[in-house]
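User: Can you fold this complex?
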Amino acid sequence: MAMGDEILRVENLHVSVDETPILNGMSLTINRGEIHVIMGRNGAGKSTLASVIMGHPAYEITEGSIQYMGTNIEEMSVFERARAGMFLSFQYPAVIPGVQVGTFLKKSVQSVRDEPVKGREFRKELNAAMQTLEMQKSVLSRYVNDGFSGGEKKRLEILQMLLLKPTLALLDETDSGLDIDALRIVAKGINSVAPEAGCLIITHYQRLLDHVQPHFVHVMIDGAIVESGGPELALKLEEQGYDWLEAPKEA
Amino acid sequence: MSDEAREAVGDYRFGFHDPENATIRFDKGLSEQVVRDISALKDEPEWMTEIRVKAYHHFMERKMPDWGNCGELNNIDFDNVTYFLRSSDATEKDWDDVPDDIKNTFDRLGIPEAEQKWLGGVTAQYESEAVYHSIREDLEEQGVLFLDMDSGLKEHPDIVKKFFGSVVPHTDNKFAALNTAVWSGGSFIYVPKGVHVEMPVQAYFRINAKNMGQFERTLIIADEGSSIHYVEGCTAPTYSTDSLHSAVVELIAMKDAKIRYSTIQNWSANVYNLVTKRGVAHENATVEWVDGNIGSKLTMKYPAVLLKGAGAHAEVISVAYAGAGQHQDAGAKVHHLAPNTTSNILSKSISKNGGRSSYRGMLQVTPKSHGCRSKIVCDALMLDTDSRSDTYPTMEIGNASADLEHEASVSKVSGDQLFYLMSRGFSEEEAMGLIVNGFFEPFTRELPMEYAVELNKLLELEMEGSIG
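Assistant: Here's the predicted assembly.
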């Protein structure tokens, strides 16, 4: 990877919500074409990391910085980050009643692209992406995430990722609750975006990594990375859990 | 628009006003003489003059209503209202013959364009009277009557005499009395037996002058087995003083007939909008009110249906949007007066920037009405904590066999929804606009497409500059 292809640099990040510290000195650098996986127990701060990178207003950065494409983004609002090429696949995507998926996708794509999105070309693009993800056309006339099953929601997240073509893709437990087929399809989506982007995948399970080949696997405990390695680390965690990584209680 | 006015009412797209070139303008204030003068000017039959005078006296004696946001009504200064203003000496059939200044107004509102594209007929009312009127030839050939109310009275006095006040008598409430006394303009429609009017017909109401009172009167009769969709839109310029709009609408759906009446009310925020709308549905007939209230200072409007014949059906779908300084007090009244009658009421309201929206509903089932069904759903969405939403349902159920459902919900835009949409590239205002449009969608999909698009645009504009 050539220098200058750095997409995300998180340095010594400390984050609190309602004055409770959640991230405690988190550091991570992602270059173009790299897939990073973060694993860790519930409550380790994984989802907070994804939300705070995307700019969720509830979190306060008390120390450290987040740089995206070489710029400190602390002052950028959520939609400015989206328009700059950042994308978050939500663990629990929000329901937007009364707003049809088709309309929503077109407006969303238009809002992040500079040039006008033409109806015909957009439909082509949409059809291709939906074919990749094996999605039914009928989803376009349903309301955004309204009455969707867990798997349908995740597939819609990945569809949005394919259309928005992000430079940085954050995937927060996108694999949770998916059956084998859905997992394979979601992985296909990630693999199609990954070569041109930086990817950060948060997951509890090794099984997604049968389909997506990560370059780095990190373990997060108490709001910071305690161990990094290659794909073999995920296998070890699957077998041995996290206990071996924790500092002994009595020194 | 003056700064003062802008401050009073905020940004309003239709707030422009054109020079006022009245051919006849009455002095402000109301008296028996004013009522008689209006009638004389219109060269009305004696019986109509008598109804007007009777209604005038009833208005003077009648107390303010006690149903609705009644305290606010005492702020209306009835002496500071112009009760009649004629802007054009004729109702033209050719758009080119409409006086230029008035044509200019309607051009800016996009009315003639809409007519060419998708309407079966159009009436445009400016101040007190219709200035333009047209109906498609094929409808005319089928015997459909679509006239402004003044012409309706002149050309079909027998029909008007039979039905005028039969659904909303002048004794109904103070504002129905006022309307009956000084009514002018409005639409008169008769659809003969078995005729289905496929394209909607539209009336457009515009108040241009300051302190104007508009009192249109609409009467729609759908004879047996016929159907019609009537659409009305309303706007007014933005002044810092108030105007009064007090209409009466009477619908009569005979056996097996269907009337749908759609309204997009977008009065500027200095208009008191106090309207009595009521329809009668005879055997197996359907009356539907699709009622959108976006503008006005105070709206009090509860479209009603009297289900008089067995198997009749009522549908009332309404949305209300209350911004700063606005109170939308709207709802529905359905009276199940016959067996096996059914009704659906869906009310959706949004309050923002301290605005207040209320649902006020009445559902009645009389003792002899067996096997009735009714479903009421009221959803309110609050966009901030300064705003207010209330629900005042009244039910009088006299028959135990009635099958009733009532659901009510109040929700707020969640931080999760905003974060989600903003992470997809929408600004906060755009995200709000999307959520609001989505919330109103069950209403919007009932509108002709052109109206739906217009309404969505309007709501997006309302969201602009609204995020603090």
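Chain B has two domains: 3-301, 414-468. The interface with chain A takes residues 414-417, 419-428, 430-431, 434-435, 437-442 of chain B (CB under 8 Å).
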